[in-house]
Write a structure and sequence with these properties.
single chain
């Protein structure tokens, strides 16, 4: 009986390790095998007390390495474009554009985990975070103290990201839920170009 229990315990431990490793396996497979992608998303921001805050939704498209476009459509319009060299953020209501060099901003941001190159561990400490309801989670902690956030958790299912949680330095958590990804989708170069709208203020350039 003791031997059976020991073997069973060992088998359960091995199964647990294999299951938890699946999250990192899926992240690496997604990073190496998905050159472009397109999906929609919903976003919820939870305050420090855990109460849900503002909700938003929009679309997301990317092309590796480092080109992406987040288009927030509801309840407000905001466009975030990474063109490979610069990161553009446009607040439609304020008619204000903020621009930063991507070399300083992309490598250690949550976006890099989905749109960057294959060198994720240069900027992040990665670890498996277990499985919940069939979703395999990984946790990424930025190696740069000035990254602006504490950690990111990404949930994978069937080889694609389905959820992303970003916890910032003020204990606020942003949760994004992705729809079905169009893997290696055809993209238009114009999607990753940003032209400053006439009359908009530009900050940072």
């Amino acid at each position: 009986m003791i031997r059976i229990q020991t073997v069973l315990a060992g088998a359960l431990l091995l199964a647990s390790v294999q299951a938890s490793a699946a999250g990192l396996d899926q992240l690496r497979a997604f990073a190496s095998g998905t050159r472009s992608g397109r999906t929609d998303f919903s976003q919820t921001v939870a305050a420090r007390n855990g109460k849900p805050g503002q909700k938003a939704s929009g679309t997301f498209v990317f092309q590796r390495p480092g080109k992406f476009r987040f288009s927030y459509l509801k309840p407000y319009q905001q466009t975030i474009v990474g063109d490979g060299k610069k990161l553009w953020t446009y607040d439609h209501e304020l008619r204000q554009v903020t621009v930063k060099p991507m070399t300083d901003t992309l490598g250690a941001t949550p976006a890099a985990l989905l749109t960057g190159g294959d060198d994720l561990e240069r900027n992040f400490t990665l670890k498996d975070a277990g499985a919940v309801d069939g979703v395999e989670w990984i946790e990424a902690t930025p190696k740069q103290q000035e990254a602006g956030f504490e950690k990111v958790r990404i949930g994978f299912k069937g080889g694609q990201p389905v959820e992303m949680e970003v916890r910032d330095n003020f204990a606020q958590t942003t949760l994004l839920r992705f729809g079905s990804f169009q893997k290696n989708a055809k993209t238009d170069p114009a999607e990753f170009r940003f032209e400053v709208p006439a009359g908009a203020d530009v900050v940072g350039e």
